[in-house]
Backbone:
């Protein structure tokens, strides 16, 4: 809107008007617009790439046992990513209903200059073995941030494929990967906002035995006497939402990952058009970009403190209000949980893929595909608390927005699809999506995850089955129609515990959990119908 500044009170002489109709905006509309606030954001990416591919086998660069020779690709790339978010006074002060914390402006960018090279070398082809091939790659990246910092990274890969016969192919790879911190992780404003799901020191009268809780007051206010809180009760938040000091960290470095994979591909000649693959993956991330996790910090402070003189380092991250001990009633009570390059993440498991197609008389071609993942482990070592495995669990630490997993981690999930494509251009398919059950992290027994309480409501989120239908029709050479329905049976998402007046804990972490469920994992909208048409001309 033109003359928006009147909403901020910065230009009282300005008369705002509707830019479409030209009519003045009423006082009621101004009050409404002032209540909802304004924000405007923009992201930009600029990319420039040049690369060259050479088939050097045509010039004799090949082994004596191979038909094809060395193939290489070399090149360079430039990228610039930028983000800018502007917010008005209402957003900046956190005055809007349900906002939870101020929404502050964000601005930052980084530039990357890279050069890379890849090579594929068949060692043996159609000889004493069917195929033996080697592939390798390397990439050098130079980063420059808008705050003046610079760093560079090296990534590389080495892979080997071996097919003793046409029916069986073995493959393995070793990769070094990096992930540079994104703009929000680097330049996000540091604020006190909703972050934690509970307070283990609240809801009961503190005793002298609660030394892990009592020392938290002396950490922030050395002049106070922790004994002053003996016998006092710290109020719990009925909504199970607690303050954290969160935001970006401009000093972050890239995290590094080592990935190892081993797999087998089966394509038996006695069953044409059938393929089955299974791959084992093992990934370790070092210097992971992650927070400690607010609830993990609070739990570790209590578990690791044995006396007033033997205080766990995690306690220094807790800033309780010196008067009432709260970490939610006022903005001066919070837990510091900024991202850092700390600890590591290890995950391993198996991925399964299968496909098959067959002609079905005059009906057309029927096909089947299957993709599944078995998550064996997802172990996080945040460098502060005891390591914890989130495979099969959900909750504020395993599924929190500041942690690496940031979603429920079912041990098994898959998609299976059965399709029929007719000679007349009609396609029909049905898909089955399965998400395995997950259990509350509080029931894990791990000291970093458990809160010592039991929840009768949905401590286990049951396995979810979703079925989808889709149809396509191709008419002539120009039109393609599509129609379908996802979640045919209108299955509701599993509901998640979001607070308790008795315990003050929540299994629904702010951010990934919304509307008492995890919409990034489960179908939160129920049955979904869609239709569309594509015209090529």
Residues:
């Amino acid at each position: 809107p033109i003359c928006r500044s009147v909403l901020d009170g910065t230009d009282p002489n300005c008369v705002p008007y509707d830019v479409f109709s030209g009519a003045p905006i009423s006082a009621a509309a101004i009050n409404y617009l002032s209540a909802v606030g304004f924000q405007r954001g923009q992201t930009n990416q600029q990319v420039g790439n040049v690369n060259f591919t050479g088939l050097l086998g045509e010039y004799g660069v090949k082994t004596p046992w191979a038909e094809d020779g060395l193939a290489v690709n070399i090149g360079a790339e430039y990228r610039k990513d930028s983000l800018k978010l502007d917010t008005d006074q209402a957003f900046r002060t956190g005055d809007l209903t349900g906002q939870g914390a101020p929404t502050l402006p964000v601005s930052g960018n980084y530039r990357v200059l890279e050069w890379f090279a890849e090579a594929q070398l068949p060692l043996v082809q159609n000889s004493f073995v069917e195929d033996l091939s080697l592939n390798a790659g390397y990439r050098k990246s130079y980063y420059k941030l808008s705050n003046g910092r610079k760093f560079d990274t090296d990534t590389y890969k080495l892979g080997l494929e071996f097919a003793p016969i046409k029916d069986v192919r073995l493959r393995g790879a070793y990769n070094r990967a990096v992930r540079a911190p994104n703009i929000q992780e680097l330049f996000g404003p540091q604020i006190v906002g909703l972050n934690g799901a509970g307070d283990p020191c609240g809801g009961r009268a503190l005793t002298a035995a609660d030394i892990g809780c009592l020392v938290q007051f002396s950490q922030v206010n050395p002049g106070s006497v922790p004994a002053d809180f003996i016998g006092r009760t710290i109020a719990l938040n009925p909504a199970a939402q607690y303050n954290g000091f969160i935001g970006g960290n401009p000093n972050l470095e890239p995290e590094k990952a080592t990935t190892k994979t081993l797999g087998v591909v089966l394509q038996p000649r006695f069953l044409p058009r059938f393929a089955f693959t299974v791959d084992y993956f093992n990934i370790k991330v070092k210097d992971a970009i992650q927070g400690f996790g607010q609830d993990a910090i609070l739990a570790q402070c209590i578990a690791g403190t044995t006396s007033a003189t033997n205080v766990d380092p995690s306690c220094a991250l807790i800033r309780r209000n010196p008067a009432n001990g709260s970490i939610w009633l006022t903005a001066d009570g919070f837990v510091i949980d900024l991202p850092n390059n700390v600890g590591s993440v290890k995950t391993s498991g198996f991925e399964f893929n299968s496909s098959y197609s067959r002609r079905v008389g005059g009906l057309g071609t029927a096909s089947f595909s299957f993709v599944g993942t078995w998550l064996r482990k997802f172990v996080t070592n945040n460098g502060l608390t005891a390591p914890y495995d989130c495979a099969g669990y959900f909750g504020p630490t395993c599924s929190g927005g500041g942690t690496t997993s940031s979603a429920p981690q079912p041990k098994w999930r898959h998609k299976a699809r059965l399709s029929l494509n007719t000679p007349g251009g009609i396609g029909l398919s049905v898909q089955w999506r399965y998400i395995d059950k997950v259990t509350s992290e509080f029931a894990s027994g791990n000291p970093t995850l458990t809160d010592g309480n039991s929840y009768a409501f949905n401590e286990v989120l049951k396995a979810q089955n979703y079925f989808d239908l889709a149809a396509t029709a191709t008419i002539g050479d120009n039109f393609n129609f599509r129609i379908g329905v996802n979640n045919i049976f209108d299955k509701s998402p599993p509901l998640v515990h979001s607070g308790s007046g008795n315990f003050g804990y929540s299994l629904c972490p702010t951010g990934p959990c919304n509307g008492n469920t995890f919409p990034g994992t489960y179908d939160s909208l129920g049955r979904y119908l869609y239709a569309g048409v594509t015209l090529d001309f």
DSSP finds five helices and 25 strands in the chain. Residues 1-10 have pLDDT under 50 and may be disordered. The radius of gyration is 29 Å.
